[in-house]
Design a protein that fits this description.
Layout lengths: L1 H33 L5 H37 L5 H23 L9 H28 L7 H26 L5
Helix pairs in contact: 2-3, 2-4, 2-5, 3-4, 4-5
Keywords: Signal
Protein name: Lipoprotein
Organism: Paenibacillus illinoisensis
Length: 179
């Protein structure tokens, strides 16, 4: 009787182990599916989307900077008060800070191959640095801090070109025509 109970218990354990291994196999299959490498076309679409959206943010910053130059000219011409200029300065700095944030979260974890993702992240870092340099240069221009306004503008251009070169590198690796 003890032998029969022991055999029955062993059979139950064996069945239980078999069910667990089936669940583990299903879990492993799901994990493999989740880490599936994207097709080249999917990778291209992600890089193109990043390029278009980052250029849109950069263009917005240029348009806003042009608008602000007009405000500065209006102040020099006496068309607006110092209070209005100060409000525009704060608005300008906040706007560029918002653009820097938007750029920093533009690329999600999309599942790109590591080399392509690293290039896009480096581009993203360059573009964020562009906005940061513009903010610092603007603070100098407004007399909010000491420094060389031209140096920050030059550094902003270098950051922009760095970002652009990294996007171009990623595009080249994927065979996307560079415009």
């Amino acid at each position: 009787m003890k032998k029969l109970a022991f055999i029955f218990l062993m059979a139950v354990v064996l069945v239980a182990c078999t069910d667990t291994s089936t669940e583990e196999t299903e879990t492993q299959a799901t994990e493999v599916e989740e880490t599936k490498v994207l097709s080249t076309e999917e990778q291209k679409a992600i890089v193109i989307k990043f390029d278009e959206e980052s250029m849109q943010l950069l263009n917005q910053s240029d348009e806003y900077a042009d608008d602000f130059k007009t405000v500065m000219d209006d102040r020099v011409a006496g068309k607006i008060s110092l209070e209005e200029l100060t409000a525009k300065q704060e608005e300008f700095l906040e706007y560029f800070d918002d653009l820097a944030y938007e750029m920093s979260v533009l690329l999600k974890d999309e599942g790109l191959p590591e080399d392509i993702e690293n290039l896009i992240r480096e581009a993203q870092d360059g573009y964020v640095s562009y906005f940061d340099q513009k903010i610092e240069g603007t603070k100098i221009a407004f007399g909010m801090q000491e420094g060389d306004h031209k140096e920050f503008n030059d550094n902003a251009q270098i950051s922009f070109m760095y970002g652009l070169s990294k996007v171009s590198e990623a595009k080249e690796k994927l065979g996307i025509p560079i415009e």
